[in-house]
From TrEMBL:
Gene that encodes the chain: ffh
Broad enzyme group: hydrolase
Protein's recorded name: Signal recognition particle protein
Domain of life: Bacteria
SMART domains per the UniProt record, alphabetical: AAA, SRP54, SRP54_N
SRP54-type proteins GTP-binding domain residues: 274-287
Keyword Hydrolase among UniProt keywords: yes
Domain notes: Composed of three domains: the N-terminal N domain, which is responsible for interactions with the ribosome, the central G domain, which binds GTP, and the C-terminal M domain, which binds the RNA and the signal sequence of the RNC.
Length: 448
C-alpha cells in the first residue's frame, strides 16, 4: 500500500546525518513511484513531487529535526495541503432545514452514505429526514427505506419502490426532491438529505437531472460521493461532477478497501473541493469526518491516534474514555484493570482489526493483523479475570506461582500467561509514550 511504500522509503533515510541532493532525488523518485502505484493521478503526482523536491533542497539545516524527519515533515505538510488543509464542517442553515444533496456514480455509496450521515447527525442531536429522489434503479427506494430504518430516521418516499427489475418506478425525481424539502420544513426537521440517481458512467441525462434537482431545492451542501477504489478514473469522474453540479464537498467511500489515499489525493487536488467525510464499511457506523491532517498521517503511517480517539469516544463509554484520558494526563501506570476495561470497549466497537489497523505502525503489522483471531480476546479476558484485584493493579507482584494459579484458573497454559504478561508490559510502555506525547513508530520518536 501507499503507506507501506512511503514508510519503507523513510526507513532508508534513517540514520543519515545529512542528505545529499542524490539522497533527495532517490527519495522523491520512491515517493513518485509509491503515489503512482496507489493510483494517484499523474499530474497530481508530478506537482506533488516537484513541491517536495523544491522544499527539501531549499530546507534550512534544522537543529530540531534530522534530515529524514525533515523530509517526512515536508511530505506530511504537502499531503495535508493537497487534502484541503483544514477540516471542513457542514455548512448549516441559519433558519429552516439544512439541505444536503448527494451526487455521484451508481454504486459509489450514496444511499449507504445517506444512512450513515443521518445516523451521525442524529447522534449529535439533529433530526434528519431522507428523501428518495433516485427513481432510476428499481430497488433504490426500498434500499433507502431500509437504510433509513437502520439509522432510525424517517424517509420521504411518495413513490413506492418495486422489487422487480422489470417494473418501472414512475414519478419525477425533481418533484420528489422539492416535496421532500417542503415536508422536512413543515415537520421541522433540521436537516434533509436528498438521495439521487447515478449511472455506471458519467451520463448527460442524469447529470441534467441532478442539476435540475439542485436548482429546485437550492441545497446548502452538494456532496459528491466517490468510490476510493476507482483509481485513475477518479479525476475524470470528479471533473465531470464538478462541472455538472458544482459540488461543495467530497465524500470518499469504501476507504476500508486497499486503495487508501490515491483517489483522495487526486480528487481534492484537481477539483480544489474539500473532502468532508470518509465512508469505511457497510455498517451505519462505518463513517467518519475527514481530517486532512490525519489522512496525511495515515498515508505516512504515523498511525491515526486522533481518529481513533474520536471514533472511540463515539462508541465508548464517555466516562471510561475520560478516566483513561485523566490517567494519561496524570501519568499514572496502565494496569490490568485498564487493560480489561479497554478490551470491553474494543468488543463494543466491533471490529478489532479495523481498530488496530489505525494504530501507529500498522503498516508493518498488517500481516499479523490479517491473521488476528477475535477468540484471542476471550482467552486474554479469561486470564485477566483469574487475577486478583490486587494483581491487576500491581502486576509486578505476579510471580511464578501466581502465574501457575492464574493459568489453572483460566484454563490456559503458563506460557500463555507469560505471553500476555510480556504483551502487557509492551502496552504499558506504549501508553507511557503516548502520555509523553511521543508517537511510536516515528523515526527518532517525533513529538506529536
Ligand atoms: P449508490 O448507488 O451510490 O447509492 O451506492 P450504494 O449506497 O447502493 O452502495 C453500493 C454498494 O457499495 C453497496 O453494496 C454498499 O453496501 C457498498 N458500500 C457503500 N459504501 C461502502 C463502504 O464505505 N465500504 C464498503 N466496503 N462498501 C460500501
Ligand atoms: Mg443509491
Amino acid at each position: 500500500s501507499l503507506s507501506d511504500r512511503l514508510s519503507a522509503t523513510f526507513q532508508n533515510l534513517r540514520g543519515k546525518g545529512r542528505l545529499s541532493e542524490a539522497d533527495i532525488d532517490a527519495t522523491v523518485r520512491e515517493i513518485r513511484r509509491a503515489l503512482l502505484d496507489a493510483d494517484v493521478a499523474v499530474p497530481v503526482v508530478r506537482e506533488f513531487t516537484a513541491h517536495v523536491k523544491e522544499r527539501a533542497l531549499g530546507a534550512e539545516v534544522s537543529e530540531a529535526l534530522n534530515p529524514s524527519q525533515q523530509i517526512v515533515k515536508i511530505v506530511n505538510e504537502e499531503l495535508q495541503n493537497i487534502l484541503g488543509g483544514q477540516t471542513r464542517r457542514i455548512n448549516m442553515a441559519k433558519t429552516g432545514p439544512t439541505i444536503i444533496m448527494l451526487a455521484g456514480l451508481q454504486g459509489a455509496g450514496k444511499t449507504t452514505l445517506a444512512g450513515k450521515l443521518s445516523h451521525w447527525l442524529k447522534k449529535q442531536g439533529h433530526t434528519p429526514m431522507l428523501v428518495a429522489s433516485d427513481l432510476q434503479r428499481p430497488n433504490a427506494v426500498n434500499q433507502l427505506q431500509v437504510v433509513g430504518s437502520r439509522a432510525g430516521v424517517p424517509v420521504f418516499a411518495p413513490h413506492p419502490g418495486v422489487n422487480s427489475e422489470f417494473e418501472e418506478v414512475t414519478g419525477d425525481p425533481v418533484q420528489v426532491a422539492r416535496d421532500g424539502v417542503a415536508e422536512a420544513r413543515a415537520k421541522l426537521h433540521d436537516v434533509v438529505i436528498v438521495d439521487t440517481a447515478g449511472r455506471l458512467g458519467v451520463d448527460a441525462e442524469l447529470m441534467q437531472q441532478a442539476r435540475d434537482i439542485r436548482d429546485a431545492i437550492n441545497p446548502h451542501e452538494v456532496l459528491f460521493v466517490i468510490d476510493a477504489m476507482i483509481g485513475q478514473d477518479a479525476v475524470n469522474t470528479a471533473n465531470a461532477f464538478n462541472e455538472g453540479v458544482d459540488f461543495t464537498g467530497v465524500v470518499l467511500s469504501k476507504l476500508d478497501g486497499d486503495a487508501r489515499g490515491g483517489a483522495a489525493l487526486s480528487v481534492a487536488s484537481v477539483t480544489g473541493k474539500p473532502i468532508m467525510f470518509a465512508s469505511t464499511g457497510e455498517n451505519v457506523t462505518d463513517f467518519e469526518q475527514f481530517h486532512p491532517d490525519r489522512m496525511a498521517s495515515r498515508i505516512l503511517d504515523m498511525g491515526d491516534v486522533l481518529s481513533l480517539i474520536e471514533q472511540a469516544e463515539q462508541t465508548w463509554d464517555k466516562a471510561e474514555a475520560d478516566r483513561m484520558a485523566q490517567k494519561f494526563a496524570d501519568r499514572e501506570d496502565f494496569t490490568f484493570e485498564d487493560f480489561l476495561a479497554q478490551m470491553q470497549q474494543i468488543r463494543k466497537m466491533g471490529s478489532m482489526k479495523k481498530l488496530l489497523m489505525m494504530m501507529p505502525g500498522a503498516a508493518q503489522m498488517r500481516q499479523q493483523l490479517e491473521q488476528f483471531d477475535e477468540k484471542e480476546i476471550d482467552r486474554v479476558e479469561a486470564i485477566v479475570r483469574s487475577m486478583t484485584p490486587h494483581e491487576r493493579v500491581a502486576p509486578k507482584i505476579i510471580n511464578g506461582s501466581r502465574r501457575a494459579r492464574i493459568a489453572r484458573g483460566s484454563g490456559v497454559t503458563v506460557s500463555e500467561v507469560n505471553q500476555l504478561m510480556e504483551r502487557f508490559a509492551q502496552a504499558q510502555k506504549m501508553m507511557k509514550k503516548l502520555a509523553n506525547g511521543q508517537m511510536p513508530g516515528m523515526p527518532g520518536g517525533m513529538q506529536m
